[in-house]
Amino acid sequence: MSTNMDFFTRGQPQEVVEEVARLLDCDPTSSKVAEYLDEHDELKHLRQDFLLPKVADLPPSDLSLVDGTEECIYLVGNSLGLQPKLTKKYIEEELDKWAKTGVHGHMVGSRPWIWAENNIEELMANVVGAKREEVALMNGLTVNLHLLMLSFYKPTSKRHKILLEDKAFPSDHYAVESQIHLRGHDPRESMILMAPREGEETLRTEDILAIIEQEGDSIAVIMFSGVQYYTGQLFDMATITKAGHAKGCYVGFDCAHAAGNAELHLHDWGVDFACWCSYKYMNSGAGGLAGAYIHEKHAHTVKPALLGWWGHNMKTRFQMTNEMDLQAGISGYRLSNQPILLVCPLQASLEIFNKSSMKALRKKSVLLTGYLEYLLKHYYSKDESDPSKAYIRIITPSNPAERGCQLSLCFSVPIRTVFKELERRGVVCDMREPNVMRIAPVPLYNSFRDVHRFISVLGSVLAASSELPTEPRMGH
Questions:
Q1: What single string gives the DSSP state of each residue in 160-179?
Q2: Which residues are recorded as modified (N6-(pyridoxal phosphate)lysine) (predicted)?
Q3: Residues at the annotated binding site?
Q4: Domain 13-71+358-466 has CATH 3.90.1150.10
Q5: Is the pLDDT assigned to residue 138 strictly greater than 50?
């Protein structure tokens, strides 16, 4: 039996788990399977580049229930990634340089402040499948979304609509609604909100394409998520982009939950624009420096509506003529110099990504999340013969090609109690209203043992919750 990650991704995750179990002559649910997969994980060394919190340091932990000296089970990279170990070193280098050289720090050192973010944009471009000149690191996600929408949303009396998910992340919804208001249109007429079919949780690609075909002549911009934050659905970005272009629409994506999670090819897919935060799977810390992308085909035809001096050509920027020498493409959208203390943690994270590739990380991710799914279904599928047994429903698509690393779970017992009890036992995950718990094993730093430990802890929580009343409208 081969022991490299190519073998692990040759079949479906379930097949791999069961074949490893046969090799080890153990049950597929045995911790031996997790240990074997970790042992033969070619990316396991990347975990050493991150700081994992100890259980005792987590505010909700109850040390009467769990060993405080253990590392926590951190499964919430979809909300905030772990801190890279080099973050502190890089920040301290800049603080030291500021203390010792003052204003000269703009031009000297390993990351001169004037172009510090430029030095890591190629690393970011590699993560999202873009060319170096198509990516800029600046602002926050919603600021970048507004800047991009001001340029790409040019409504006319005929073509004034924006297509997005019904349950888009609130910030996206607010941004789109305000852009429509800003251009003198009514969101009730200009927003097309796509909802899943009755009784379904996720959107079908065929239905998205049908709406584009039906409404495309009136759609100015298609603005979808790359990965849907609530359900974890990974959209077919290439197909959506192609369909939108066929109807004359601009197509953009909020890649907050896709960058560093899914294998993206923004340039090759022809995506017109995109933006993303960097504090989730990109591990840059809360409020970290965000990213933005514009395809090179628009470099000289689509221009920023708002200008700042950092969008001025750097070669002539400090001549201070007040005559804009605009950089082409996304670089022209820069408004101000970037905070150096936000560049540092992002650099630390991108250097870790650079030790591997999104292709390799994605291979591990498919198996890691598939292993989680396998164990959840084994233990917690609905048992029609025993209605009293607690069960879990996964609303994230089962097809690995239609999801990132996150699984969104609904419970037959009160979810808030389950969530609170998991936290008390050193599990870090999150809840999203109305009734979903998001579990995201991240291939950069999560292990198969993390997944097995989570299932074990979840079992003890659900056993303790067995007397709780059921919630008949689970997940709706």
A1: -EEEEETT--HHHHHHHHHH
A2: 280
A3: 141-142, 169-172, 225, 254, 257, 279, 309, 337
A4: yes
A5: yes
